[in-house]
């Protein structure tokens, strides 16, 4: 079964169209990477998936059910979670409060999930009483992903995984993601500008340009493709 | 001068009441990002409700606090659902006009039912006083003070310790962040509006035992709630306490040194000064909607 199936998706802001006929899918336990130039619609795409932006047309199926008309809260309840661009943390609240809010749709399991997230990210445990606004960029990214994990997602979506983070932190977070996939069978969509990293952690990838998918394939194949290497990996 | 301790005591007592009274205003402002100009009339609705229950059924205004809160909560849900929610989505600025109209409507409705005479809720313990050495305070003021603290504390606990409270703060801090964890802002707006209006009406009970009131005092009360909110800065219960105390001191001292007639002027002047000089309030806190 496919976790996510998107067909001919169109979306935009006001009357400016951003996404044009986007079709893609995510299989069970699969990590799918999305990359492409700035402004190509990657974040817009994730907003449509989580439901904070209404699509103009096309279909969205999650676990074989149409979700176009579901509000974000219902999508989260069914297992979709987003670590958004800009992180959208509650900066005036503590780390632990942020995490608990991630379990809004899943309160019965908030205690056990809290422990789980703290095991994945011990840094967060140490900072649990601090305000989210006082964390470093890397810690905020961990918090953003940790908060998304609190709802026990089946499909975890992460926007700008590595943006602004030191390589060591990125490796740490990427390791955790792969662990989560292994231990919990979570599927993921990872938007990542650092193409070598994107292809390294994913099974398949889609390339966005001007709101369209212009290339796609298995990550190991894309990694070897000349057009990709020239445009995105700056190697000749 | 011996009078100073007495004035300070009076200021503290009154300040705690103003903090509670303004809490609903600052909460709806912070969470929904709207300024409710009908807020003062909501307070008066509570005063008249408590007045009616006391005068016709003999129910003490303190005992009828939950009635006012409940009525206010329902009224808040209703106005949010039917009126404000739609307008704030289409054109947030128009909420000002909407609540301005609502305020005039409520004032005239109260005038129609109760007429413009000054009413007061004359509880039997209104005349009794505590004497603490050189200080004298009426039992009513002490009762209002304690209730204000308890009720303000309850709102604080609700916001800090419950899932509902957390969701309210989350929407205030980051609406989109709240949405992606699965909180429905529309629902939070409803609850906040209910809570805010419930606070307004129940503070009306306390206002009614503190002093006389007429249907047209709403504008003045809204200005006070506004002042308390901008002095403390929006967003936290602590801020409302700071703002409430400020207004308490301002009124008590102005009334004593300049005369009762200057009290409201002083509030207005303070409001203008704050808007000009410290629009973020004394504590320099962030507005709820920011970050
Ligand atoms: N809230 C918005 N209102 C109007 N236009 C928007 C909004 N958000 C994004 N856009 C526009 O939509 C287009 C796609 O933006 P989007 O953020 O989806 O790109 P992106 O691929 O995520 O870019 P980046 O790599 O810089 O994050 C851009 O042209 C952008 O200007
Ligand atoms: Mg983006």
Q: Would you mind describing this structure in some detail?
A:
The complex is a heterodimer of chains A (236) and B (291). The longest helix of chain A is centred in the C-terminal third of the chain and has 18 residues, at 167-184. Chain A is of the alpha/beta class and 236 residues long. Chain A has helices at residues 42-50, 72-77, 95-102, 110-120, 122-126, 137-149, 167-184, 195-201, 219-224, 226-232, and strands at 2-13, 16-27, 31-36, 57-62, 65-66, 80-83, 155-159, 187-191, 204-209, 212-218. Chain A has one domain (2-231): P-loop containing nucleotide triphosphate hydrolases (Rossmann fold, 3-Layer(aba) Sandwich), CATH 3.40.50.300. In chain A, helix 3 (95-102) packs parallel to helix 6 (137-149). Helices cover 38% and strands 28% of the residues of chain A. With 291 residues, chain B is mainly alpha-helical. Chain B has one domain. In chain B, helix 2 packs across helix 9. The longest helix of chain B has 30 residues, at 3-32. Chain B is globular. The termini of chain B are far apart. The model of chain B is unreliable at 287-291 (pLDDT under 50). Classes of the chains: A alpha/beta (236), B mainly alpha (291). The A-B interface holds A 50-52, 71-73, 75-77, 81-82, 84, 88-93, 97, 100-102, 104-105, 107, 133, 147, 150-151 and B 163, 166-167, 169-170, 173-174, 176-184, 235, 286, 291. Magnesium ion binds at residues 42-43, 85, 159 of chain A.
């Amino acid at each position: 079964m496919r976790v996510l199936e998107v067909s001919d998706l169109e979306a935009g802001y006001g009357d400016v169209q951003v996404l044009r006929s986007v079709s893609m899918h995510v299989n069970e336990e699969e990590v799918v990477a999305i990359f492409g130039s700035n402004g190509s619609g990657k974040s817009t795409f994730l907003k449509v998936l989580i439901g904070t932006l209404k699509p103009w047309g096309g279909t969205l199926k999650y676990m074989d059910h149409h979700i176009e008309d579901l509000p974000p809260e219902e999508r989260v309840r069914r297992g979709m979670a987003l670590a958004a661009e800009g992180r959208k943390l509650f900066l005036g609240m503590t780390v632990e409060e942020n995490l608990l809010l991630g379990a809004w749709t899943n309160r019965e399991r908030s205690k056990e999930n809290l422990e789980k997230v703290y095991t994945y990210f011990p840094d967060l445990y140490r900072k649990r009483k601090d305000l989210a606004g006082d964390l470093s960029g890397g810690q905020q990214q961990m918090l953003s992903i940790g908060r998304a994990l609190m709802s026990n997602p089946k499909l975890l979506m992460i926007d700008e995984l590595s943006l602004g983070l030191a390589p060591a932190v990125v490796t740490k977070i990427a390791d955790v993601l792969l662990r989560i996939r292994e231990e919990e069978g979570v599927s993921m969509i990872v938007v990542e500008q650092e193409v070598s990293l994107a292809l390294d952690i994913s099974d398949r990838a889609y390339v966005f340009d001007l709101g369209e998918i212009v290339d796609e394939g298995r990550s190991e194949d894309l990694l070897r493709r000349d057009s990709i290497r020239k445009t995105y990996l700056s190697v000749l | 001068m011996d009078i100073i301790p007495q004035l300070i005591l009076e200021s503290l007592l009154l300040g705690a009441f103003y903090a509670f009274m303004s809490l609903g205003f600052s909460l709806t402002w912070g969470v929904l990002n709207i300024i409710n100009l009908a807020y003062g009339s909501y307070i008066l609705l509570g005063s008249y409700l408590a007045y009616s229950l006391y005068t016709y059924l003999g129910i003490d205004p303190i005992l009828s606090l939950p009635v006012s809160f409940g009525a206010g909560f329902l009224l808040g849900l209703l106005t949010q659902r039917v009126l404000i929610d739609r307008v704030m989505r289409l054109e947030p600025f128009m909420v000002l006009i909407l609540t301005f109209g609502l305020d005039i409507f409520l004032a005239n409705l109260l005038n129609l039912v109760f007429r413009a005479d000054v009413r007061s809720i004359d509880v039997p313990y209104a005349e009794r006083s505590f004497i603490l050495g050189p200080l004298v305070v009426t039992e009513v003021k002490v009762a209002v003070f304690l209730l204000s603290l308890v009720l303000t504390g309850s709102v604080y606990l609700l916001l800090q310790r419950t899932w509902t409270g957390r969701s309210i703060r989350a929407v205030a801090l980051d609406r989109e962040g709240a949405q992606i964890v699965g909180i429905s802002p529309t629902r939070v707006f409803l609850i906040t509006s209910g809570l805010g209006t419930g606070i307004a009406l129940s503070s009306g009970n306390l206002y009614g035992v503190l002093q006389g009131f007429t249907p047209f005092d709403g504008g003045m009360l809204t200005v006070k709630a506004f002042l308390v909110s901008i002095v403390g800065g929006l967003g936290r219960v602590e801020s409302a306490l700071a703002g409430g105390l400020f207004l308490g001191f301002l009124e008590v001292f102005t009334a004593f040194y300049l005369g009762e007639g200057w009290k409201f002027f002083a509030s207005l002047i303070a409001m203008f000064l704050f808007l000009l000089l410290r629009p973020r309030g004394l504590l320099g806190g962030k507005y709820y909607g920011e970050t």
